[in-house]
Design brief:
With 337 residues, the chain is of the alpha/beta class. A hairpin with a 5-residue loop joins strand 3 and strand 4. The longest helix is centred in the middle third of the chain and has 28 residues.
C-alpha cells in the first residue's frame, strides 16, 4: 500500500490517459458519447462537532508535548495533562439537555484548550531547532486548534452561522470540504466530477475544491474531453443541475449535436436534441452513470478515502478510477472473445 500511495495523482492521471487511448484504438470507447455527473468522496474522519474538535486539539497537542518531553531530559516547559478533563466536558456537551448547561461546559472546554495552547506556544519558543519535524506538527496543530476555538466562540456565544469555507471539520484532514447535497444531507470530503462513456470507461475525473455548482462545471469537463480524445463528443448527457442556456450554447458551438439535460430548465427538447427520441434515449443513457458511481464506491473504495493528506486523497481517487478502467477493459476483451 505504501508503494501505491507513493504514486502521485499526476502519474495516475497519465496512466488513465494511456488506458483511454488504448480503449479508443481498440474500439472499446470511441469518445463520441459522454455522460457527466458529480459525487462526493468522504474523508476518513469522524462526524465533526466543535466539542470533539476541541478535545482532539487538547489530546493531540498533549501527545506531542509528551513526545518532546521524552526526547529531552531537561524539557524546559512544565505542563499539565488536561485530556481527561477535556473529554469529560466534550461528553457533557454532547449529552447536555439545555443550552445553559451546554454553554457552561463549552466555556470550561475552551478554557482547558487555551491552557493547552499556551503550553504549546511556550514550547515552540523554547525547544531547540533539532526537533524541527515535531515542532512543525505542533505549530500546525496550534493554528488549527485556534481556528476551532474561533469558530466555536462565534457559533456558540455570538450566534453566528460560520460559513462552510471558514470551518475546520478535522484536525487530521484539514483539507476536508463541507458539502451540502441538495439540502438533504451534509457530507465531509471532496466533490468529484466524472465523465463516463458508453462502455462504462471513466475517461476523466476532476477533484474539486469546495462545493461549486454543477452548472459551472460543464465547459471545463467538455474542454477536458477534447484534451483526452482530441475532439468534443457528438452526444452528451448530464443531470439537471448542469442545465443552463449558456452551457447549451457552449456545447452547440463545439459542434456537439445532441445535449441532454435531465431537467430542461425552460429549454425545449428541439433546442437540445434532434428529436424527442434522441432526447429520451440520452436520458436513459445518462441514468447509467449512477450505476458506474455505485460500482466505484462499492467495489473500489471510492465511497471513503482512507489515505491521509490532500495529495494522497487525489492519488486515492485516481487509483480507484484506474483500477475500475482496467477491469472494464478486461471485461470487454473477454466479451469480444
Amino acid at each position: 500500500e505504501n508503494l501505491i500511495k507513493a504514486v502521485g495523482a499526476e502519474t495516475w492521471e497519465a496512466i488513465n490517459r494511456i488506458i483511454v487511448a488504448h480503449a479508443k484504438s481498440n474500439g472499446v470507447e470511441k469518445g463520441s458519447e459522454s455522460r457527466i455527473d458529480c459525487t462526493v468522496v468522504s474523508s476518513n474522519i469522524h462526524e465533526p462537532s466543535d466539542s470533539t474538535l476541541l478535545w482532539d486539539g487538547v489530546r493531540v497537542i498533549t501527545r506531542i508535548l509528551n513526545q518532546l518531553k521524552a526526547q529531552q531530559e531537561d524539557f524546559p516547559v512544565p505542563f499539565s495533562d488536561h485530556t481527561r478533563r477535556a473529554k469529560r466536558r466534550m461528553l457533557g456537551i454532547q449529552n447536555a439537555r439545555s443550552s445553559k448547561v451546554r454553554n457552561r461546559l463549552y466555556r470550561d472546554l475552551l478554557k482547558v484548550t487555551e491552557k493547552t495552547l499556551n503550553y504549546a506556544k511556550t514550547t515552540v519558543r523554547s525547544v531547540p531547532a533539532r526537533t524541527l519535524p515535531v515542532l512543525r506538527d505542533l505549530q500546525e496543530m496550534i493554528a488549527l486548534t485556534e481556528q476551532v476555538m474561533d469558530q466555536t466562540t462565534r457559533r456558540v456565544f455570538h450566534g453566528e452561522q460560520v460559513p462552510a469555507v471558514q470551518k475546520v471539520v478535522s484536525l487530521f484532514e484539514p483539507h476536508t470540504d463541507v458539502i451540502k447535497k441538495d439540502r438533504r444531507e451534509t457530507l465531509y470530503g471532496h466533490k468529484v466530477c466524472l465523465s463516463v462513456g458508453r462502455s462504462q470507461l471513466i475517461s476523466d475525473c476532476v477533484i474539486l475544491k469546495g462545493n461549486p455548482a454543477d452548472v459551472t462545471l460543464v465547459q471545463e469537463m467538455l474542454n477536458r474531453h477534447d484534451l483526452v480524445y482530441g475532439r468534443y463528443p457528438l452526444k452528451v448527457a448530464l443531470d439537471g443541475g448542469f442545465a443552463s442556456k449558456g452551457n447549451l450554447q457552449f456545447a452547440k458551438s463545439k459542434n456537439i449535436k445532441d445535449v441532454c439535460f435531465a431537467k430542461r430548465r425552460g429549454m425545449k427538447v428541439q433546442q437540445m436534441c434532434r428529436s424527442d427520441y434522441v432526447y429520451k434515449r440520452l436520458r436513459r443513457f445518462r441514468a447509467g452513470i449512477e450505476s458506474s458511481v455505485s460500482w466505484l464506491k462499492r467495489c473500489f473504495g471510492l465511497d471513503r478515502c482512507t489515505w491521509r493528506s490532500l495529495q494522497s486523497f487525489h492519488s486515492y481517487v485516481w487509483a480507484s478510477v484506474v483500477s475500475a478502467n482496467l477491469l472494464t477493459l478486461v471485461r470487454n476483451e473477454f466479451s469480444a472473445t
